[in-house]
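Q: What would this chain look like folded?
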Amino acid sequence: MHGSKHEDDGHSTPEPDLRSKAFPRVMFSLAIVGVMVGLMIGRLTTPEERVLEQIEVVQGGLDLWFNEEPKLHGENVEGTVAVVFEAQGKSQRGQLTLQGKPVGWRVQKSEEGLLLTVVAARPLQGDWVGAEDAGRWRVQVRLHE
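A: My prediction, written as structure tokens:
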């Protein structure tokens, strides 16, 4: 057992590894490339967020402008109009005039998205309809007593 020469495999010196030392590096590089390609595919297939871009006060109601069609659910509840949009946006509030009387509206964030609430001193009813207009999506909320 003198020295580390390979004579008859009767000593404790291990045999040299015949595998390339580059194998772990190649596997690690392939894993990184796979993760990067997966991230790029995920980014391309993720739908764009729906965003409330603008609110316009118009005769008889509101026009809400979105970058793309939001899912919405609305109800007339005890004289109040409430519409929930599955979209992102900032909280806003304002007033409009309906038949010479003031009406208050407010957009606020909720668990489901954005909540539009329209209230007045008298019972209100509302109708809403959405349509594509000039590459954006417009939801028209029309109010009446």
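The longest strand covers residues 101-109.
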